[in-house]
Amino acid sequence: MDDVWVYIISASSCLFLLCFFKLQRSNRRNLPPSPPSLPIIGHLLLIKEPVHRTLQSLSHRYGPVLSLSFGSRPVVVVSSPSAAEECFTRNDAVLANRPHMLSSEIFGYGLTTIGTAPYGPLWRDLRRLTVLQILSPHRLAGSLAIRLEEVRLLVKSFYKEAAMVAGGGGCAKVEMRSRLQDLSFNIIMRMISGKRYFGAAIDADDAEVARQFREVIKEAFELSGTDPSDFLPALRKVVDFKGRKRRMVDVAKRSDVILQGMIDELRSRRKRSDGGREVESKTMIDTMLSEGYSDDSIKGQMLSMLAAGTDTSSVTMEWALSLLLNHPDVMKKAQAELDDVVGPDRLPDEADIQKLPCLQNIINEALRLFPPAPLLVPHESFEDCTIGGFDVPQGTMILVNAWAIQRDSKVWDDPTSFKPERHEGLEGDHAYRLLPFGMGRRGCPGAGLANRVVGLALAALIQCFEWERVGEEPVDMSEGTGLVMPKRQPLEAMCKARECMVANVLGQL
Predict the structure, then answer these.
(1) Total count of domains within the chain
(2) Domain containing 340: what range?
(3) Whole-prediction pTM value?
(4) What is the pLDDT of residues 265-293, one digit of tens each?
């Protein structure tokens, strides 16, 4: 019996010493400043929607590098260009992991997609595929015809609607969000599978697939926010908070069925067309099938491109048009530039966009004020590092508040005002002050495609139509909630064909 007590006392002493030394080591760390927290849940009660605004308020009080505890998960919030630069240069490799989230695991095919995979061989292979093949400059140039046709069809739909009003000379009230979403969705789907799913001359079966898939994508976005069990793992074994996990699994299954159907259809089409011979890879599915990727890998890549490339582009265009409606003088300036560079005899081409600095400044200013991802996709440290002179322990989630950086009065003059001219001559001076696509290894590989789609579509809409607000009141610029920051109220506008564009362009569509 005495020996038993000796073992118990010895074990207790060892545990006490381990805890003591761990506490001492923690106390020696120079952790970022932090608000007072509650036991177990940490700072979770402080986090209110919209999260980027809440974190901005906390950073104003505690500094641009801020430490928080989301339950059991340590978090560091970065809200200054210098700290962001440290994250994406010196610490780029250290912070190249993604935090393990329930939604990432379920929707990301077990963390095997480019957006969810841990930093390592799998991610590098997916990045190579995406950057060097699917979204390379060469492949984007090859898909130019898709973007030109979809923009032309968008312009045609607005012109037909305007032509029905007052014998073609009036203003038509048009709803913008769904049109811009359809444009982005069709472009991505044609690049992925070779088929368009919205608009005129669409097969009824394809239209139904598109409707179902749009619902699935919407539900997935709604469920892809953080789950309480991500921060309080013990809850996962006890309760499914509001049935979120069950709903995620259901949405993922429905998505998988639709995506698998697209792969099977294209695989069947390849067999019929090539007669057993190798065919040229024109779509993303073609490319991945020819390289021997599994169906799950292809479905994960499809979902990643659709999730990252549809709403992000459409919401940027909606914010930009809303800003222009509230600043008609800037709209007139952009139209004059288009008239001078492109003229009234054709629609803009992507080669024209680089010659339109006013348009580029408008897009940059819209991205500054209303970035589609106000909090960049979270990173996670896989070893200890320092940011802003503070220690950041291994396993810490890093949140870069791009929205706060892009509205910081220490970084931008009059930061809440719409001033496109502020970007003139700053082409090489935007780094870490303008972060709509992230930076570093895990920056968005689709930035080139997004810039092409947004630039081409906005140029055509500004060139071809006169736009006015529905009423005398300014367009409501309040933000909604969601992973991709939408307008709270979908944009509606009055649309009228410009006389100079009717004869040679709009009348020929």
Answers:
(1) 1
(2) 44-508
(3) 0.91
(4) 999 887 776 654 545 558 999 999 999 99
